[in-house]
Amino acid sequence: MAHRVIVWGTGFVGNAVLRVLLAHPAYEVVGAIVNDPAKDGQDIGELVGGEPVGIRANRDAEAVLATPADAVAYFGPSPIHGAATVDQLCAALRAGKDVVDTSLGALQDPALAPDALRDPIEAACADGGTSLFSTGIDPGFSNDLFPLTLLGVCGRVDSIRTTEFLDAGTYPDQRSLQMLGLGSKVDEPALLQNAGLMTGIWGSPMRRISEALGVEIEETREVYARWPAPEAIDYPLGRIEKGCAAATRMELQGIVRGEPRIIIDHVHRVVPDVAPDWPRPSSDPAHANRIEVKGSPNVVQETVFSDEHTGDGNAGGCLATGLRAVHAIPAVCAAAPGILTLRDLPLVSGRGGMG
Question: Is the pLDDT of residue 136 over 80?
């Protein structure tokens, strides 16, 4: 029996997921909540570039949440709109809908999440008798599911590093990348240089890895770098002025026995040839998620997502991020109420993917 789903948010990720769900045998889309007034009232089939399906997008969240449904797939605002996101997630949970989410990566480990974030969500789960599973948009699975799977084939692990390589020049949410320092003057303070922020964002998957290995992270070290453009660079979605950051690197190091042994790394470039001394993917000029384990045996896994029609890596990666959350819906609906983590779920597979 298909799970009935309300899609909340039809931006880059939500739109791509909605297009897939409308044709997917394991899910029935019964509603869509939008923020943009221009989308209000549009048939959701036409909204994603297809034929009409008889369901209209609606800005009235309360009305849509009154629709009988098993779950809400939430692809709402980025973490920079945290308070609004928490309010919306709580509304869905209190309406009796289980929720899968990509927006609040901090909830990948509720024990590490700030009280102001965790407590309202837990209360809403209790009120609605519902559950929430947040994958994070990092994408979450590249920093927990992938490395945890590979650790299961290792006899000894000296270190493990996960790296996201991102084509920042074509990434649609430029505002979020600018918040991370893209295009900023490299001699000016950056948001991610605030102590503890990187740990707050990526500490949850790091803890998952340390728990799996049975080791304690003694401290985290946050290494942030920007690569200044030697001259102005025009890229598909903007322009980097001379001396401003054409690439950013965010490296969170987990210190075990005095050494950085668990590392979560991100390298973002506006065009592939900038920051030539930084790591780069081997399977694609700009996009990849790589896991590197040093030990016995050594392991390197590099995964490249791409859109089936255009080959665009951002589109493929964002769709995969959204579908990772959606495919967790059956397990989330079957779970006890509360905030769920990766360890609470069975293996999530792509049920119905072959029709």
Answer: no
Q: Are 96 and 228 members of one domain? A: no
The dihedral through the CA atoms of 22, 136, 63, 173 has a sign that is negative
Alpha carbon 350 to chain centroid distance? 18
- If we measure between CA atoms, which residue out of 323, 302, 306, 322 comes closest to residue 314? 306
Measure the CA–CA gap between 281 and 235, rounded to whole angstroms.
20
Q: Are residues 163 and 93 part of one domain? A: no
Q: How far is the C-alpha of 109 from the C-alpha of 336, rounded, in Å?
A: 17
Give per-residue pLDDT as tens, 153-184.
999 999 999 999 999 999 998 988 999 999 99
Calpha distance 269→338 (Å, rounded): 38
Domain-embedded: residue 323: no
- Number of domains within the chain: 2
Domain, as residue range, for 114: 3-135+328-344
Q: What are the residues whose beta carbons fall under 8 Å from the beta carbon of 274, sequence distance 6 or more? A: 227, 229, 233, 246, 247
Q: Within 10 A of 40 (CB to CB), how many other CB atoms are there?
A: 13
247-271 residue pLDDT tens: 999 999 999 999 999 999 999 999 9
**Residue 109: its pLDDT value, please?**
86
**Domain shared by 150 and 130, yes or no:** no
Cβ contacts of 193 within 8 Å, gap of 6 or more: 224
